[in-house]
Automatic annotation (TrEMBL):
<dbReference type="GO" id="GO:0016020">
    <property type="term" value="C:membrane"/>
</dbReference>
<dbReference type="GO" id="GO:0047372">
    <property type="term" value="F:monoacylglycerol lipase activity"/>
</dbReference>
<dbReference type="InterPro" id="IPR029058">
    <property type="entry name" value="AB_hydrolase_fold"/>
</dbReference>
<dbReference type="InterPro" id="IPR050266">
    <property type="entry name" value="AB_hydrolase_sf"/>
</dbReference>
<dbReference type="Pfam" id="PF12697">
    <property type="entry name" value="Abhydrolase_6"/>
</dbReference>
<protein>
    <submittedName>
        <fullName>Uncharacterized protein</fullName>
    </submittedName>
</protein>
<dbReference type="InterPro" id="IPR000073">
    <property type="entry name" value="AB_hydrolase_1"/>
</dbReference>
<dbReference type="GO" id="GO:0046464">
    <property type="term" value="P:acylglycerol catabolic process"/>
</dbReference>
Length: 264
């Protein structure tokens, strides 16, 4: 079921059992809501799933100017509008820079967010790469060849079909959007290195073939949470939810079962 909320589309796949929890899925850089399709299929209706395109991506490819170059807090506020339309317990899942948005949302909505899942997460405080290192990411808008090459390097287990599909998804991103978001995730928020304001259960999933969100980087993220569950997918890259959707779905479901079980 797809509905229009606040001028953009929100897709809701209901659970097969009434009252089941819902996962709110927030995509990352260059992507749109469709990158979650295989994960949603793999959860097989055990939980509901809600996803949407962030400004500047997918069906909102032309909205980056109208949004005035959204900040991370503004993106979290938009996600809160989506969250407000979901009934029952919610697990928020964010991938890449979507993890920054997810954490900010969870911290602001602790009474609604029962658990937080961070997939190949960009640190809330930003990656803090030097200008020359972040410049290639900023320049990816409109460059299909460079986008495909980057994805292949950062997720070596992506199939040719998956690479083609992701390249098609990234084609909607303009140079303005990629430049804006590269600066956004590289800079992060000022207090992003402090202990997280979110006090609920946290699952962090990394891939040992990810060239940017390395296991060493994850080791700097996990201490910000009180008792995170950290998992590493062997050969998983930055887009491990596309490479290994069944495994990622199983991890999310196991985490959800533990979180909801603890509430009973």
């Amino acid at each position: 079921m797809t509905q229009s909320r606040n001028g953009f589309r929100v897709t809701h796949t209901p659970a097969t059992t009434a009252g089941s929890p819902t996962v709110l899925l927030i995509h990352g850089f260059l992507d749109d809501a469709s990158v979650w399709d295989d994960v949603v299929d793999a959860v097989s209706g055990e939980v509901g799933a809600v996803r949407y395109d962030l400004p500047g991506f997918g069906g909102r490819g032309d909205s980056i100017a109208a949004a005035g170059g959204p900040t991370l807090p503004a993106l979290a506020a938009e996600a809160a509008q989506v969250l407000a339309e979901i009934d029952g317990p919610v697990i928020v899942v964010g991938q890449s820079f979507g993890a920054q948005v997810a954490e900010l949302l969870a911290a602001r909505q602790q009474d609604r967010v029962r658990g937080l899942v961070l997939l190949t997460p960009v640190p809330l405080g930003g990656t803090r790469l030097p200008d020359e290192a972040v410049a290639p990411f900023a320049a990816l808008g409109g460059d299909r060849v460079a986008q495909r090459r980057l994805r292949a390097e950062m997720s070596p287990d992506l199939s040719e079909e998956q690479l083609d599909r992701l390249t098609d998804v990234g084609a909607a991103a303009t140079p303005r959007a990629t430049a804006h978001y590269a600066d956004l995730w590289n800079t992060g928020v000022p207090d992003g290195s402090a202990p997280s304001a979110y006090r609920g259960p946290v699952l962090i999933v990394a891939g040992n073939a990810d060239a940017i969100v390395t296991e060493q980087l994850v080791d700097t993220i996990s201490p910000r949470f009180s008792d995170p569950n950290v998992k590493v997918i062997d050969r998983g890259g930055h887009w491990l939810h596309v490479e290994y959707p069944g495994l990622v779905a199983a991890m999310i479901l196991d985490f959800t079962d533990v979180v909801i079980g603890a509430m009973s």
